[in-house]
Each structure stands twice: as C-alpha cells, then as structure tokens.
Amino acid sequence: MTKEPLVLVPGLLCDAHLWQLQVEGLADSADIWICDHTRSDTMAGVAADVLADAPFSNFALAGLSMGGYVALEIMRQAPQRITRLALLDTAATGELPEQTRKRMALIALAQHGKFSDVTDALLPLLIHPVRLGEKALADTIKSMACNVGSDAFVRQENAIMSRPDSLALLAAIACPTLVLCGRQDALTPLARHEEMAAGIKNARLEVIEDCGHLSTLERPAEVNAALRRWLST
Question: Which of 121, 170, 178, 181 minimizes the C-alpha distance to 145?
C-alpha cells in the first residue's frame, strides 16, 4: 500500500512528542514528517520554513493549536502543495487584544528568568481538568516546553501575534479537511471549530469527548481514528 505523505506541525511550546502517538498509530498508512516551527518570529516566516524544509512536493498537512495557524498560513502561501488539511484544537480568527496582553505577560516571564512559570501558568488550559493530576502527561508537556526553550518560545509567541485573520481564507480551501477538537478545549473552544467547519466546503467536524486542548496526547486513539478516516477520504 502506498503511504500518504503527511506533515505534522506541533503547537506552541510543543515538539515531536506531541505527535508521537500518531506517528506510531498511523505508521502503516502515512509517511510522516514533523516540522521545526521554532526558527522564525512571524507566521509567514514559520510557514515558509515548513514549506522549504518539507521532504515532499505535495502532502497532507495537520497542525494543532499554533500548528493550525501555521497550516492556514501554508494554505495561503502554497495551497497547490496540500492534498488534505487537518486543523486540530485551533482557530481561524486573528489575534485579539486580550490574547496579546496575556502573551506579553508570558513573554515577560520568560525574559526575566521565569520560563518554568510559563508552563505552570498554561498547564490548566492545555488539558482536561480531571487529568491535571496525571504526572506522566504533565511531565511530557513540561519536557516539550523545556526542549523548545525560552528564546524559541518568544519567537513563537511573536509569530502567533503576527498571524492574520484567516476566516476569509476558509472559502478558498478546496481539499478534504478535518476540523477536530476536544469538547473541553479551554483555549480554542468548540465554537471556533464549528466556525471553521462551516466555512470550508469539504470540512468534516469531529469532537473528542472528555478532552481538552492537547487532544493528540489526551485521547490518541480517538484522534488517530479520526485522522485515519481523513487520510482515507
């Protein structure tokens, strides 16, 4: 069986571990490459980095959270290279002033030697409340943040703040599209995903129950099943 080329884009303060259970679960059907999204400090630059680095000329593309913002920017820059699109726990809206205020506060922590406080502040927003006591899950999230590091975190936040509103872009997306989120996603709620699914002609909305923002880590079996359906359409 021919494997589908698949590019995965992690979220803010996340690395390849965010997608490890998908790499393992979809190995039989996808040729997977996970991008580096840490080098540029604009969304346009991050997307250009991914397009330049990708080992495939055409590929399916999936992004979670910040990775979804990157995926939408890739659709703006090079839609002809994308065969399928998956937007997980993300949004098409641009940056709001309140979001920028919160990001600047986190950047200030990182720049004043308190980078570890950033993950502590974000953790309750990243996973379902009932899972906050799961040490292995929390340790994975903190380890990814440590791997990304303070300097790259600041670049990522600046890139996120620079992103354009992509709501008008949705109507131009013609490839098969999966829009997926955890029902209890506190950062990008279900309404944002309903908005994207309604705006994209070939979109399918899937909601993962009892799940927060980091769906690939929290509910890997359900996410893998949804991705497998998407890859087979």
Answer: 121
3-state SS string over 119-157? HHHHHHHHCCHHHCCCHHHHHHHHHHHHHHCHHHHHHHH
Q: What is the pLDDT of residues 58-68, one digit of tens each?
A: 999 999 999 99
| Dist. CA 197–CA 124, nearest whole Å | 26
Q: Return the pLDDT at 233.
A: 87
| Dihedral over Cα of 161, 11, 212, 164: its sign | positive
Distance between CA atoms of 201 and 142, rounded to whole angstroms? 37
pLDDT at 159: 98
pLDDT at 1: 66
Domains and CATH numbers, the chain: 4-95+157-232 (3.40.50.1820)
Read off the tokens for 152.
């790259």
CA distance 70 to 79: 13
The pair of structure tokens assigned to 225 is 């099943």
Given a cut of 50, the residues of the chain with pLDDT beneath it are: none
